[in-house]
Amino acid sequence: MKLTVLGCGGGIGSGRHTTCFLLDEDVLVDAGTGITSLSLDQLAKIDHVFLTHSHLDHVLGLPLLIDAVGDRRGRPVTVHALPDTLEILDQHLFNWKLWPDFREVPDASAPWLRFERMPLGSSVSLGEARITSLPAHHTVPACGYRLSNGKRSLVFTGDTTRSEALMHTLNEMGDLGDLIIETSFENGLRDIAVASMHHWPDSLARELKHLKPQPRIWITHLKPGNEASIMDELKRSIPGREIAPLAQGQVIEW
Predict the structure, then answer these.
(1) pLDDT digits (tens, 9 = 90+) for 35-76
(2) Which class for 216: exposed (0-12), middle (13-18), buried (19 or more C-beta within 10 A)?
(3) Residue 236: which domain range?
(4) Which of 136, 148, 165, 170 is nearest to 58 (CA)?
(5) What is the DSSP code (8-state) at residue 54?
(6) Is the Cβ–Cβ distance between 139 and 116 less than 8 Å?
(7) How far is C-alpha 55 from the geometric centre of its chain's CA atoms?
(8) Across all residues in the chain, what is the average pLDDT?
(9) C-alpha dihedral, 81 to 84 to 86 to 92, nearest 10°
(10) Which of 178, 184, 197, 236 has most Cβ atoms within 10 angstroms of its Cβ?
(11) Are residues 86 and 62 in contact, defined by beta-carbon separation less than 8 angstroms?
(12) Are strands 20-23 and 129-135 parallel, antiparallel or unpaired?
């Protein structure tokens, strides 16, 4: 299995894209602005999109994906997400006001887009990959994902603040090799992090004290322009852990 980081920024700016990962060649995890780095041929290969939550920096590429390549495909793109997330997309995005409802285009019997409800804790198997939704704690209904090949797992938390349920789930994984977890703000912006339900270095340090496995830890969703200072604070707060910033263009294989 191969995960390519198309975008991992906590915002946009020169050389920065928001969250979007390509799993092998046909699966996306989130659909932020990182999706724009894919060619039309690559976009047309996407069969499945797994969304962590409904915020724009994680979904804004989805309607553009369907619009760009829907007519090139012989089957709909399937979007997997929490039922609440799909309800938000139904009401506020694919509603014929903000964007066409491609579940009815060109016809409801042969659409370009379909939704698949994925309740918390449920799994989808695609080839050798098994993708399981995990608990997260954010301002809207949200989840993370475990990507497993049966021998080793990678976990992407999505956007989250402190979550006992997530830590409990991670501690039950005997094969956790890589953990992609967010830290969005510096300690000095703690109040903003609390209000928006994101991690800051000290909060992540407290969370990781409860993590028993020893995966490689990759930090994502860093605030644009503050990446270096956030990582400096993290490394001071979390000694003894293998921790590094996730990088756009990075590939993780397992």
Answers:
(1) 999 999 999 999 999 999 999 999 999 999 999 999 999 999
(2) middle
(3) 2-253
(4) 136
(5) -
(6) no
(7) 11
(8) 97
(9) -140
(10) 184
(11) no
(12) unpaired
Burial (CB count <10 Å: 0-12, 13-18, 19+), residue 41: exposed
The CA-CA-CA angle for residues 119, 121, 122, to 5°, reads 65
d(CA 111, CA 144): 27
> What 3-state class would DSSP assign to 185?
coil
Q: Which two tokens stand for residue 103?
A: 């579940």
Where do we find the tokens 């590939």? 251
Structure tokens at 148: 């497993």
Place of tokens 């990962």: 21
Residue 251: DSSP 8-state: E
**How many separate domains does the chain show?**
1
Closest CA to 5 of 17, 16, 20: 20
Going by pLDDT thresholds of 50, 70 and 90, the confidence category of residue 240 is: confident
Specify the CATH number for the domain of residue 191.
3.60.15.10
Comparing CA positions, the residue from 119, 197, 201 lying closest to residue 163 is: 197
CB atoms within 10 A of CB 164: 11
In this predicted model, what pLDDT tens digit does every residue of 197-228 receive, in sequence order? 999 999 999 999 999 999 999 999 999 999 99
